[in-house]
Amino acid sequence: MKPYTPRVILAWCASLLLAACHTTPPKPPAPPVAATPPVISPPVAPYAASSWDKLPDWQSTDLLPSYSALQQSCRALKNKANWQTACSRAETLTQTDNTSLHLYFESTFSPYQVFNPDGSKQGLITGYYEPRLLGSRSKTKRFAYPIYGVPDDLLTIDLGDVYPQLKGMRLRGRLQGKKVLPYYDRADIEQGKAAVQGRELFWVDNAVELFFLQIQGSGRIELPDGSSVKIGYADQNGQPYASIGKKLIEMGELKLEQASMQGIKQWGEQHPDKLPALLAQNPSYVFFRELPDQLSAPLGALGVPLTDAYSIAIDPRSIPLGAPVFLSTTYPNTSQPLNRLMLAQDTGGAIRGAVRADFFWGYGEEASVMAGRMKQDGQMWVLFPKGSEPPPPAATIPAR
Prior knowledge:
Elements: H1 6-21, E1 47-49, H2 64-77, H3 84-91, H4 98-108, E2 109-114, E3 123-130, E4 132-136, E5 145-148, E6 155-158, E7 170-176, E8 179-182, H5 186-190, E9 200-204, H6 207-216, E10 218-222, E11 228-236, H7 244-250, H8 261-270, H9 275-279, E12 286-290, E13 311-313, E14 324-330, E15 337-346, E16 356-363, H10 365-373, E17 375-385
Parallel strand pairs: 3-16, 4-10, 13-15
Antiparallel strand pairs: 1-2, 2-17, 3-17, 4-9, 5-9, 6-7, 7-8, 10-11, 11-12, 13-16, 14-15, 14-17
């Protein structure tokens, strides 16, 4: 008999985990005969066909920056069957005035409004940015907080190798003997339980800034000699994201209106003794890689550079990665409309749900302020290339 290869062992372990997840629960006791059976409403379809006149300010929207961002998406999508026509037409446009661009989008795409499972059309729109941290390639008394690359003991198991219907889904864990266990959480990693020794890319001078770097997913490290290095997301420990802002509100440390990124940073400066315990409340941990200097912007999950104020992070289970998304929201902490055609070019651990997006503001202090304050309501429309529209909804979208 041939010995099991590591790949076979991992697939076998993953299948055991999946089997455990799909174990049929015990049958509940039968209700009394006289009881009225509960009414279970079917989930609402995530999309409903819309029209261009339903998109707020569509006719007056400046589409040139959106078109440039779409060209970035097409670098990753142009060879996909349902995107070939849209990307080919985008590449061959000879006139890019606003009238011509409106004609291009209206003749190439169909708008579909996005709905939540309960039929509501409003969702949370937050912001993120590319932070700048002060750091060094070696540890010093000042630069004491490590930025890690991917540790050697982190396993990433492609579940599609075991079940084809789970293509694209991955399980992160670690081996302990013959068992696959969840990977270490934030507290364990920072206590040195993971195989991170020797995986330090840089050392920075601020634990809170490092924490927010992990939330943003990319950034720049300014070194002591004045040079700057770009870093980007490489992997994650597989643990769920938890908001420390929400934790501070629950603890009575901050009010809701104070729980912005700036408010959390200020709290950390005022309570350095309580900070490690607070950060440990978020078990998610991100690992990084150094990026080429010539990159114009951070790489999103689509694998193309993000466009300041025209890229968003979405939940790819609901929104196709790379697609144009018309976003109708408001500027941070105001009621001023922000209606814009964005490109879904990134994802994030905290971005979960259908009507849910993270607005990329870019690099610098102004971007930091805008991102830290953004927590707005919004609506979203996905533009599907004609001929690849989603199937008709299985349930009627309620009017709201």
